[in-house]
Design goal:
The complex is a heterodimer. Chain A is built from 8 helices and 4 strands. Chain A is an alpha+beta fold. Among the domains of chain A are: 58 residues, Arc Repressor Mutant, subunit A (Orthogonal Bundle), CATH 1.10.10; 80 residues, Glutaredoxin, CATH 3.40.30.10. A 4-stranded mixed beta sheet of chain A has the order 2-1-3-4. The longest helix of chain A has 13 residues. Chain A is globular and about 75 Å long. Chain B is α/β, with parallel strands linked by helices. Chain B has 2 domains: 228 residues, 3-Layer(aba) Sandwich (Rossmann fold), CATH 3.40.50; 290 residues, no CATH class. Chain B has a 4-stranded parallel beta sheet with strand order 3-2-1-4, with helices on both faces. In chain B, helix 3 packs across helix 10, helix 5 crosses helix 7 and helix 15 runs antiparallel to helix 16. Classes of the chains: A alpha+beta, B alpha/beta. Chains A and B meet through helix 2, helix 4, helix 5 and helix 8 of A and helix 3, strand 2, helix 7, strand 3 and strand 5 of B.
Amino acid sequence: MARFTPENEALAREVIARYPRPKSATIPLCHLAQEQDGYLTEDAMAHVAELVGCTPAEVLGTASFYEMFKLHPVGKYCLNVCTNISCQLLGGEELLERAEERLGIRAGGTTPDGMVTLEDVECIAACTEAPAVQVNYRYVERITPEQLDTLIDDLRAGRSEVPPHGTLGTTRQRTAGRLANVTPPEQQGEPVWIARHRVAAEASGTGETS
Amino acid sequence: MNSPSGTGAAGGVGAAAEGVPAVVSSRFEVAEGHTLVGYKTSGSYRGYEALRAVLDMAPDAVTAQVKDATLLGRGGAGFPAGVKWGFCPPGVWPRYIVVNGDESEPGTFKDRLLMERDPHQLIEGCLIAAYAIGAAQVFLYVRGEMPHAQERIAAALNEAYEANLVGQNILGTDFSVDIVLHWGAGAYIVGEETALIESLEGNRGMPRLKPPFFPAAKGVYLQPTIVNNVETLSNLPWLFNHGVEAYRAVGTEASPGTRLIALSGHVNRPGVYEVPQGTTTFRELFEAEHYGAGIRDGNELKMFIPGGASAPWFFPEQVDLPLEGRVVGGEGSMLGSGAIVVMDHTTDAVRACLRVVRFFARESCGKCTPCREGTTWEEKILQRILDGHGRPSDIDLLLDVADNISPGPYPVAADPANGLDAVPFPPRQTTICPLGPSSVAPITSAIRRFRHEFEARITRRDPIPVTAEPVLVGAGAPADEVSDGAPDAASDGASARLRGTFDSGAPAVPADGPRVMSLGATPGTDAPDPGGSEPAEVRDAGAEDASPAAEEPTRKRGSFDV
């Protein structure tokens, strides 16, 4: 499992078709690869490169910039503890320490059983609901130390409804056969409704163009 | 939008105050507000009616109305959206719209709510903007770490395509546009518009140099591109339902309309509140029962960040300022992305400062040297101060590093107690984008106001307990304790203690309980001793003597014993 499965490759081609230039699909396809394998493998990056028409090094170059792309295996559940300012003020750093202790690993590490990877993350946009953590990017807000303990125990025991690491939004945008107007920029001209109003304005003598 | 919930399944959301229209938040508490039916049947207007009205107007007239309304960008810079739209060079096609939903400014939590709870509102906003500027395509860039928002938007887009509200010949007219949902992958810098465009093209999210070309002239695929924030576009449906006059009736002349403010930190009721721009004050936001309901535990306000982590800090003297971009800018900070972080007197200024700086150090993209190196060094220096390895020269070193990222006087709030005036926003920068200069904000803010805390961290050997009840220097504290306070440390016996022999300085150590330091609960009374310039020098000299002694054991272990 590393290159896309036939189903995922079909999905990948649908994603690419949404963009005027295929390379724009690099990040969405890396997400798809990560969803398939749990992390971003070298073979997957090579396959992404083939599909979007660039080199594997370019895909690696892009993927390595972004924190969500894991270039090595991670746990089934990524437990992200926010320690940024709003969460710090309400105990985020203490929660991280507690999680480290309970899991027996440092932030950035994975438990030996491969169930949980612990991360110390930057602001996850739940500031008014601090302190907050995410499990595979699903929020648990206003969490107490005791709730964190329970959450960790559940994750280690596999008692969680959260899909495994790599799966983000499970509802996908369906665009097959629906796209109206996606072509490379060179093939695009003035939109018809703009042209219609421009012609009308010119005819009426106001002469305004956009 | 009635009574705010405080704790909801996905977060507490506060209501607009009475008499304030819910421009963008009217469906936050509606269970089915995120569906097409919900959008058409609930909230402060009927969904997609504005689009129908707009499709009967000339595109230029739509832009003109947005200009007339003075719809200011809600992403941070506060630039008028209508003016931005007008920057597209005439006759150059295709044009694109990129929606900035990569919300990651620390303290900011509003775009996620808008995307999760009212995705159709955003979609209708996108359509109105696309019609006005003649966009071929809209890219809706949602932060990668928000799967719930991604799902809600995907579902809404699928519904909208199905209902012929997006795509080919929308509502039977000649207006056709595609809206494509795009996910990010975790990088704060991608919130900067040119970095967002790079990311959308499949590259590392590093900002582009501008000028010469701003995105409106050359953006995605080097075509004219309008980058707008989620909240900005979410204002459009209400605006075109209720009209420019109704929109301008809220807020002030220069900043009309409402804003979503994420109030977090040490308040009793943190939440996201829709407030009229310019007329609400910070005090009202902190104290009013329908907003923050006061500082937690009845504590004193120590400081607050008025506009996200990038904004210089404000202090109790600034609480009566209105939430108005220009006023706040003139007073040395910014409203930014509508994120207010409140810190009470138990907050450790050094620790808070380090936390914010560490964020910028981690998120620097590495393109510009002053930012890449500068933020990293700022973090290292602050960390060593916090760890007890600070050097007396570190405070000036921090300011020097900061000055290399943002030269000249950095925006900072006034400090009337010490006769210091505000330095107005914005900062100057030696970098392409404002990320580097933003890292300076907590440093200059904290050092200017709480220099004594930094000094205490550097010169005192024991950890500094931050107590709930600050003991004010000279306000009833035992004499020994007072003389132990850092600012007065140069008095008799100080030099001995400063050479790393705190323990032997018996008279200075109060036997009756932990030593405490005052933390700015009542600014002015406990500010660093204004006459402290001489003691500071003595202290520096003394501590400099101390540092080699402190390091010696480590060096021995490292170089001789092995």
